[in-house]
Amino acid sequence: MALIHYLARIPFDFGAISTLGEEIAALGIKRPLLVTDQGVANAGILQRALDAAKPGTPVVFDQTPENPTEYALETCLDIWRDKGCDGAIALGGGSPIDLAKAVALITSHGGKLADYNVKTGGSAGIGKVSPQIAIPTAAGTGAEVGRACVMSLKDGSKCVAVNLNMVADTVICDPELTLSLPPRLTAATGIDALSHGVETYCSPWDNPPAAALALDAARRAAKWLPVAVQDGQNRQARWEMMMAALMGGMCLQKALGSAHAMANPLGELHLHHGTLIGVVLPHVLRFNRDHAMAALSDLRAAMRVPEGTETHDWMLKFVGSLGLPTKLSEMGVSEQVLPEMAQKASKDHLSATNPRPADAEDYLALLRAAF
After folding, report:
1. d(CA 105, CA 161)
2. pLDDT at 1 over 50
3. CB of 245 within 8 A of CB of 142?
4. How many structural domains compose the chain?
């Protein structure tokens, strides 16, 4: 049985951030905690959000690490309690958005994030969380409409909490906030958006609306990501990439596959998620070639892969053309960690929805090929 569920109010266009004050009031939030990072603050985007939030005055936490951590979550929870906050605003990429989701979860449910780990069945008990507004400043993760929250715990492991109740109540998508994103980060986040379309479309789960969104996300990203990387001021490219990322987040309910199953443990090495995806995705496409032929045929047409070119070869060249690494060794990954990463990938919940079953030996072969 397919579970088809779409929710969230989404103002989308250039200048949409100007609605922030109205959206805060509509949710009845009196004292929001705004979660962001130093990059967003230094780019002037934080001040734009604070101006747009008026007459409200959010409490700001601007120290979100590159990958959200349990330590950062505890700091946010202390601020929430000390300042009497009653709602969360996420401003940034996937890290601030995931951190804000965790804040909304724990402030409404109590306990620790590990209590809600999808791998132990804890996510099933997640009900309505504290009010949230998500404002993405990059076009990539789709976390703004995603059901998952990924975080590094104190013991170094990754915890993933997944439930539709964790989707933000309101998502403000303003492509203007992405105009200053550097080419390398534009490419790395954009590859993540493209991969969401590709992997969810290949997933064996049946969800036709999500599949339609996935195919269109892949089409938009394949066409417009190179333009956005080459000319960051191209407003149409930025609009199209933010839409591709949004669609990529919406289709995640159809589930991902082996590229993300490998990127999750590799991310524990403090490596950028989208860059990792760009390295491993071509090898996963090769691995899945004979097990998702119909899906890959549709994707080839959507992404305009030239006739006679293998999808995985095209993807490898596409990633390289954006100036991104195409080998794990280029990212500083040690060959010695590959067996451990393979074991963790085989146990990742996203491995179960890859179109071709994969065990630890398969993942080790894939990782060595990507190395």
Report:
1. 9
2. no
3. yes
4. 2
